[in-house]
Amino acid sequence: MKPEQSTVIPPYLTVDPDLAATQIGAPVGTDGFAEIARACAAGRRDLSSRGLEDSGARRLRMFSTWEITRYLIPVATGHFRRVLKENPELPQGASETAGGAKWFTLDEVLRLRAHFGARGSKAKAYQPWRPEGLPAKMVAVANFKGGVGKTSTAAHLAMSAALDGYKVLVVDLDSQGSMTSIFGGKVADEWQTVFPLLARHYARHLQGQNQRRLDRGEAPQPLDDALSDALPIRAETLIQPTHWPNIDLIGAQLNLYWAEFQIPVWRMAARGWKLWDALTESLAADGVLDQYDIVFLDTPPALGYLTINGLAAADILLVPLGASFLEFDSTGRFFDMLQSTFGSIEEAENMAARALGREGLRFEWDAVRALVTRYDGTQQAELAALMQSYLGPTLSPHRQGFTALIGQAGEQVQGIYEADYRDFNRETYVRGRETFDATWASVKSLILGAWRRDELAGREAAE
């Protein structure tokens, strides 16, 4: 007996043209885009107001004794309390109820960590390790496919490093400004982004060229107003504090996209300008790499000039992707484009270098890792294993799972480390933290390994 055929008609077969014409609404012109943008801005203000103080500033939650002794300072809870009792000059925390649990600001946690580092057991690493005399490590998070968790990964890594005690700078290179929003940054225009650092680098190149023209008895090339305005700007005037005491930010906003049009114009006018070095050399010249331990670079989802600057500046490159065929395929094309782009720069520069008998250009990164994000082990294990077999050590064996904590924190416009564990089942909180803690552990291993390798190379060169 044949099964009875369903009488349910698919909805796309019942679309009536006359009814559709009454529902489509009026045509939309460019003014319509402005109305939609205003609606989004109003909604964004409403959402971002959650977690804000009365002054309008973001605030970071406090941390309990349980969290501190479990995640931040490796001491037993009882010993932690004894140390506070014996040292009344140390932060004592605040209780929300009489006799209740003690809660501490992150500033206070950092002071306590410094105390344990100075007075505690030498067998434990209370303070984060960084070799003396070496610059900050720069970590770029990049992929030209959107929706892979690029900005979220960069933000959570910055928060992880801060909780670990490192001093962190976040540089937002994406004109969408999502990273800036996460850290509560306020950016009025492109002159509060990295743009003036890039313009200053180009202006200094022109000044060098002008000096050579003068030496040859030629007239110098005048700098336009924008380049003249950029010359006195230093990175510290662009860096703004965040609600995290040890995370600072160079923010972004929509006008930063203008750099994608301006940089090629500069390059065409001065072929000798090494545009890929603009960000690195500007941060180094202003002492930023000595003032911070780790710099995280959030790049646009495209291989444009801002991304090239971020990738060229980076010591470590992280490429987030989902465990799907399309994202795996897209990421392969991304690496293919990286090779083509940086390879062509090397080839062009090295042709000139060989002709002049100079050392050639070679881009190099301490480590490059792809990282699976938003991982669902019940549905994606087979594909993730296949990806691992093809990419080998380039694909981090740690897979960043998606848990209820991540979803709920996102709804509250927070990173998971900003979420109060009392808003969740504690088991949910612990499980949600595990995937991001493990991600930080894998990235921290790359950073510390690169630092140690640099340190040993420096010692060998000095002998």
Q: What is the arithmetic mean of pLDDT? A: 87
SSE succession = HHEHHEEHEHEHHHEEHHHEHEHEHEHH
Termini gap = 89 Å
Multimer state: single chain
* Tally of alpha and pi helices: 17
Shape: globular
Return the structural class.
alpha/beta
Give, in spatial order, the strands making up the sheet with the most strands: 6-7-5-8-4-9-10-11
Strand content: 5-15%
Number of strands: 11
Low-confidence stretches: 407-413
Helix content: 40-55%
Largest sheet: 8 strands, mixed
Evaluate the radius of gyration: 26 Å
Jot down its keywords.
single chain; 463 residues; alpha/beta; eight-stranded mixed beta sheet; three-stranded antiparallel beta sheet; 11 strands
Please provide a written account of the structure.
With 463 residues, the chain is of the alpha/beta class. The protein has 17 helices and 11 strands. The strands form 2 sheets. Strands 6-7-5-8-4-9-10-11 form an 8-stranded mixed β-sheet, with helices on both faces. Strand 10, helix 15 and strand 11 form a beta-alpha-beta unit. The chain is globular and about 80 Å long.
